[in-house]
From TrEMBL:
Pathway: Lipid metabolism; Glycerolipid metabolism; triacylglycerol biosynthesis. The keyword Plastid does not apply. GO terms for molecular function: diacylglycerol O-acyltransferase activity; retinol O-fatty-acyltransferase activity. Belongs to the diacylglycerol acyltransferase family. It catalyses: 2,3-di-(9Z)-octadecenoyl-sn-glycerol + (9Z)-octadecenoyl-CoA = 1,2,3-tri-(9Z-octadecenoyl)-glycerol + CoA; 1-(9Z-octadecenoyl)-glycerol + (9Z)-octadecenoyl-CoA = 1,2-di-(9Z-octadecenoyl)-glycerol + CoA; 2-(9Z-octadecenoyl)-glycerol + hexadecanoyl-CoA = 1-hexadecanoyl-2-(9Z-octadecenoyl)-sn-glycerol + CoA; all-trans-retinol + an acyl-CoA = an all-trans-retinyl ester + CoA. This is Acyltransferase. It comes from Monodelphis domestica. It is found in: Cytoplasm, Perinuclear region; Endoplasmic reticulum membrane; Lipid droplet.
Amino acid sequence: MKTLIAAYSGVLRGTGSSILSALQDLFSIPWLNKSKVEKQLQVISVLQWVLSFLVLGITCSLIFMYIFCTDCWLISVLYFTWLIFDWNTPKKGGRRSKWVRNWAVWRYFRDYFPIRLVKTHNLLTTRNYIFGYHPHGIMGLGAFCNFSTEATEVGKKFPGIRPYLATLAGNFRVPVLREYLMSGGICPVNRDTIDYLLSKNGSGNAIIIVVGGAAESLNSAPGKNAVTLKNRKGFVKLALRHGADLVPIYSFGENEVYKQIIFEEGSWGRWVQKKFQKYIGFAPCLFHGRGFFSSNTWGLVPYSKPITTVVGEPITIPKLEHPSQKDIDLYHGMYMESLVKLFDKHKTKFGLPETEVLEVN
């Protein structure tokens, strides 16, 4: 009997050892390594934003249309009724959510590239600002991460400053997408919104405008540092009308995260892009990044290249209710000069040669 018990105990010990060994083997599997898990979480966090940017609007619209044709039609009716009453909320700065801006997903998003925010000067909370963000890149990923989330601690680096990233007004006519954008402090890039934020929302407001817009995105390519700025003067006029200081921003690496097919001027592809830009407000780009599972395949996930966003010195702007063209040209010239100086001062710190020149178109 004792022999039987001893044998049984040995089996149990052997079983326990086997289980422990199996667990150790399980956690040694490559895909369960902490660093690999974190990398996959980073990829997922970036991909969810890319898909939100590209398809969330149309997907939610189709879902609500489908629901309207079912027994749950009341859900669609109630949402669109509320939407009518809430239509002008984006024009007044929206409904930013501190909770959403501090989601952990944005920290994974930040670490994937990684993205950094560099402060060069303090900003007075008694002033309002228009930040000019350059370059646009394909999706303005640096602009989103730095100013629509707290992943790079914009609130701590610029205490008392409320950033509002301005984007296409059409995005705020789309169900659910508009709520998602507003929760991050994103607003429409139109005169009504900017006038409201700079005149009826107190001080300490900073509106981030990606000045080059869709036209600049068409020329986005790795290794290229070019901005569309020479004929973009509307933001300077708005700054003068409200006495809002101008702040140049250059995001090193923004053009490195996607590759795209650039159509030559005069080609059918460029003609189609310009028509979209003129009538819809955005220009479709043929671009690609890496695949979800492998960096050696093509996909929608951007390449993990560092993006460093440098916020330059504010340019003090006087308040002129009716600025002349001469006034606009003067401060526009000062802004371009300040942007070039910012680029030249920091380019070698972020991997560019001393001979690199910022192309201003």
